Amino acid sequence: MNHSSSARSLALGLLLAGCQVGADLTSADETAAESVTVRADGYFIAEHDNRRCASPICGGYWVSPVNASSARCVDGSTAARCYVAALDLAALGIGVTSLDGAVIYRGRIAAATDHAYGRFVATEAWRSASGAAPTASVVRVSTTGTMCTFLPCTALNVQRLNSTTRPLPVVGVDLSRLTLEATARDHVLGDATRDDGVLVAGVRTTAPGNPATERVPVLRAREAFVRVTAPTPTGLCGAGLQGALASATERLLFTSETDAPFTWFARDAVRVVPSNASLLSHLALPASTRVERITVEQLLRGVVVEDGSLADAHRAARFRQMVQTLHGQLTGLTVFRVGEVQIRIFILGRTRCGTLAGLETLAVET
Q1: How many whole angstroms separate alpha carbon 208 and alpha carbon 215?
Q2: Distances 262 to 141, 192, 236, 250, 251 between C-alpha atoms, Å
Q3: How far is CA 82 from CA 32, 124, 217, 268, in A?
Q4: Which residues pair with 206 in a beta bridge?
Q5: How many CB atoms lie within 10 A of CB 135?
Q6: What are the pLDDT digits (tens) for 292-311?
Q7: Cα-Cα-Cα-Cα dihedral of 326, 181, 193, 257, to 10°?
Q8: Are 85 and 64 in contact (CB under 8 A)?
């Protein structure tokens, strides 16, 4: 018997029941900066300086703190925006000296070695998913640090950038007011359920829950920002592949009549995707053990299709990202369901190095 639909419905009910809406919801009109001075590491927006004079006096960047009223400039003064002669993006590891479009940087204003105009040293960069600059309070949305059946668990946290205010819970991020490509949408929804999270400009408000007479907290996005990173190489093997799959399955659980994480599985001595008999031999299981071969799309058919709820949209995005990672790293991708009732599930393929690797999880079906 397949209990996946009822399990998801139960999990959604628990999710909504666990979210208590307080009186501190963000006002729908909140766009004003807090009376806060960013004195060191923080989040900034950088704009080219178009004044015409000799560099480095002109032609650099004006950096303004996000959500805050001022920042400490390189000369020790405080201002709503500070001039720096250069953006230092070396720590990002993306091989560029500047980024186009609407970008939020995390970093600090630092002294330069050859002049008095300073530089901005970036440690993170987040590019607008639709190309628009933020017009509302910007927050980092991330997990509450738990593993549970139904991502995003009891709640996601929203933490206002450049602020010491406490994180507030939300059920999910509502992207209905944004027009995003499918990949960008999955990035935002999926990354929100990770520990590192995603940046979103929007307002915290309420929406109908389950039942519809209840109200639950949501973050209604006006803009979303995807982290700028070097592309993950395809065709990894060994520790590199293990790390990529661990990232793809971070805090992700496979739901049946139990909840099971995904774990690394590899057999360096196996050079091809095994037959049913050879897999049982590698697992030291009796030859009579039941083995079913399916595709990863068949395994996750009911998971990657959204049911219309906000919480399910986050979970479906994560699984679509996982499938994309698997197809990008492994060839001959095959799913083996081994056993009955307590079914060991192996998602396996051939690595670039010619070895067998993938993921293992568990399903209980009575």
Answers
A1: 5
A2: 23, 19, 18, 9, 9
A3: 19, 19, 36, 55
A4: 217
A5: 11
A6: 999 999 999 988 877 777 87
A7: -60
A8: no
Tell me the percentage of the chain whose pLDDT exceeds 90: 67
Cα angle 319, 322, 325; round to 5: 155
Q: Which residue has the tokens 């703190």?
A: 65
Integer angstrom CA distances of residue 167 from 2, 141, 244, 336: 38, 9, 29, 42
DSSP letters spanning 184-204: HHHHHHHHTTSSS-EEEEEEE
Check residue 189 and give its pLDDT.
95
Antiparallel, parallel or unpaired: β 156-160 and 331-338: unpaired
Contact 178, 219 (CB under 8 A): no
Q: Which residues of 231-265 are buried (b: 16+ CB within 10 A; e: fewer)?
A: eeeeebbeeebeebbeebbbbbbbbbbebbebeeb
How far is Cα 143 from Cα 196, in angstroms, rounded to an integer?
8
Return phi, psi of residue 77, to 5°: -80, 165
Q: Torsion over CA of 203, 207, 210 and 211, rounded to 10 degrees?
A: 150
Does 67 score more than 80 pLDDT? yes
**pLDDT the model gives residue 6:** 34
CATH level 2 (architecture), domain 233-364: 3-Layer(aba) Sandwich (3.40)
Each domain of the chain, given as residue ranges in start order, spans 20-31+133-227, 34-126, 233-364
**pTM of the predicted protein model:** 0.86
| pLDDT tens track for 158-176 | 999 999 889 998 989 999 9
pLDDT band at residue 93 using 50, 70 and 90 as cut-offs = confident
Pull the structure tokens for residue 51. 């004044």
SS3 149: coil
Give the C-alpha separation, 278 to 326, whole Å: 22
In eight-state DSSP terms, residue 116 is S
| Rg of the chain in Å (alpha carbons) | 24
Q: Give the amino acid at 36.
A: V
